[in-house]
Design a protein that fits this description.
The protein is of the alpha/beta class.
Length: 486
Amino acid sequence: MHDKTLTELAAGLASGEFSSRELTQAFLERIDRLDGDLNSFITVTAEQALAAADQADTARAAGNAGPLTGVPLAIKDLFCTAGVKTSAGSKMLDNFVAPYDATVVDKLAAAGGVSLGKTNMDEFAMGSSNENSFYGPVKNPWDPAAVPGGSSGGSAAAVAAGLVPAAMGTDTGGSIRQPAAFCGITGLKPTYGRVSRYGIIAYASSLDQAGPLARTAEDCAHLLGAIAGHDLRDSTSVARGVPDYTQELDTPLAGLKIGLPREYFGDGLDPAVEGAVREAVKVYESLGATVREISLPHTHYAIPAYYVIAPAEASSNLARYDGVRFGHRCNAPEDLTDLYKRSRAEGFGEEVKRRILMGTHTLSEGFFDAYYKKAQQVRRLIRQDFLDAFDEVDVLMGPASPTPAFDLGAKKDPVSMYLQDIYTIAINLAGIPGISVPAGFSGGRPVGLQILGTHFAEARLLNVAHQFQQATDWHQRRPALAEETL
């Protein structure tokens, strides 16, 4: 059962081929047997999962089942989950048990999804390799010597290894699309505000967005339909109706206008990655699409703007972790100042400390206008680049990452790590949706094709991605680990 897509598993449940309990038990056994080598889960909630599976089977027997009823899922450990440890991959929250459910968790439960547990991640979502977790690095199922990408690396690795058919992640600067590319699966970052952020432990509030990781675009369409929508508890949630994202999947692509940003095909791009992307574009041309080169002239400002804005917001959001109300607290503090200093020094990892310091500096007196305000002005220019491009084309295409997955420990310089997100960060600054789909290999490691659309164009992106997956079999390739059976 582990080799089926979420859509296929939902059909098997509907036909009575197997029950949700049988399905859930099978995936729990795979996690127990195989995840020791991957470290993709922080917490496995077997007891709760089996209870939810039994409820799903009861609902189905009563004729009250929906498309996701009884389907196993995993949740990135950034989503608050009532009664379950929610750590954000950090020692700071190693002892934190959430008292409520995030909206995404609540919606998935209402749709009948069965959560198997919480997946590993870069601490507070700060990273591009899943090496910054308090619980140790996650390994890539395609090659255990390689990173799975980050920060949603645990979710991506679990899906790629067949430990779960789909998982939830978050994307602040590429943290769904880049690990999806590295692990050879499909990952969707929706438009900012399309999915509620309520109950998601904040990194950078104007950039964070939740989304699904799964085998196929069709799977992601089902999941987005379940989690999207307005939420009164999130002031940034957009009051806009949620379409059936599966309706347009089979729409032909004749006449589709594709733009290739010339800035995405320059120095630093792995030749094999570029070759895979250009071959993918040829597939689209064979499906009736037309292709033209376009320009996003402010692309080279995306990384510096992002690494002013995101750390600034992080320094503000993470100020609440002071050792007083919740989270890690140092032993025997001498006074309040000592409590603050040692609790934060002990609780946060090096990358989180680095970004807090960067953010505090840019928000400090005398630097706010020079750095933060200027970065926000640049952000507006980047957004306008995309809006201008979508006046000429329907979608943009390019690589999700300049290289395939790199080796564990290979990026010791923080700047070289930040450059891994060069093709993904601008999308978060602009607030537009993007999806990464498998499109080939480089040195035996997966390559992701990134497809971008204008605001709230998720249905179109899913259609474009689905049609590519109907014409190719890259998304059907599995690492050797995923082929193992019990």
